[in-house]
Amino acid sequence: MKTILYPAKERGHVNLGWLDSFHSFSFGQYHDPKKIHFGALRVVNDDCIAGGGGFGTHPHDNMEIVTIPLEGKLAHKDSTGNEGIISKGDVQIMSAGTGIRHSEYNASAEEEASLLQIWVFPKLKNIKPVYGQKTFDLKDRKNSWQVVVSPDSSEQALHINQDARFSLVDLDAGQSIGYQMKWEHAGLYLFVIEGAIKTANQSLSKRDALGISETGLVKIDAVSDTQLLAIEIPLFG
Q: Which end of the chain is more exposed for a tag (fewer CB within 10 A), N or C?
């Protein structure tokens, strides 16, 4: 087993007033040559948007974008004609492909909204842009993996243009859970949303992450009540 630790305290940080954002990988003005990507995983941004704030219409192409709201509500509108609100329990995907333009605003004028926005390199370039969102029952991730993004249609999750699998779990303190790798040559990126865990001889706390490879099963012990995101992702270079 190989591991790469991504401590929360080492993340890039920008505060624009309306946006308070932490970057696990190089993004914008934050650049760390050791933190460009983990395989096909390119961006993990931890964003807090002030009431009334948001991202105006801007373009993306040839990138898979997964948005996971943590608190509050986000208003989305894009050039494919999709428009709506997403909130905690929802997951949103965009396969930007040949190009998509979208805006993303806090749907509240007063309350903060927080989210994880994650970018993944695509499997195929220049596909027709695709948008999707789904509401997941939070009870189904209690001490059990809830798969929210997967290429396997039997898992009833959202699909992106990459062999990537996103899973969420809410672990009670003292509980243990295993993650069984689906693909032999993939890596696993574990991100602690809240709480604390022990895994692969490492102790991780809120917003810490660990990249794991060359193993088939990862065992995780919850030190406290914990929310955890697992991203199984193709590895390269």
A: C
Are residues 112 and 149 part of one domain? no
**Whole-prediction pTM:** 0.97
Angle at 169 between CA 215 and CA 121, to 5 degrees: 60
CB 95 within 8 A of CB 130: yes
Biggest CA pair distance of the chain: 47
One pLDDT digit (tens) per residue for the chain, 237 residues? 999 999 999 999 999 999 999 999 999 989 999 999 999 999 999 999 999 999 999 999 999 999 999 999 999 999 989 899 999 999 999 999 999 999 999 999 999 999 999 999 999 999 999 999 999 999 999 999 999 999 998 899 999 999 999 999 999 999 999 999 999 889 999 999 999 999 999 999 999 999 999 999 999 999 999 999 999 999 985
Residue 170 and residue 70 share a domain: no
